Amino acid sequence: MDDTKIKIALEAKRDELDALLDEAAADSAPVQLDQTQQGRLSRMDAMQHQAMAAETLRRRQRERSLIEAALQRLAAGEYGYCVTCGEAIGEARLALDPATPFCILHAR
Ligand SMILES: [Zn+2]
Questions:
Q1: Which of 96, 66, 59 is nearest to 83 (CA)?
Q2: Ligand 1 centre from 85 Cα, in Å?
């Protein structure tokens, strides 16, 4: 894969996450326990739903910052090398997760 293709793929993924994050921001009102809401969801359900939404939001924000960092490494000519050891990251690994900053040894 050449840099341009990687950049386009990363930017597309980032834009997709931005759209999802915008949506989440518009939808992140605190749990409402007014009459209409209580008719459909119990308080427990509402809180569980909110916890799951918060987890999804965190995961997307983390993913977005990984993508942003990958774009910066790409611009700096450091893309595709592990940020821990500097070794080249395997192509199969990058194909699976283009934003990964780690080689297989330092992934965990
Ligand atoms: Zn490494």
A1: 66
A2: 4
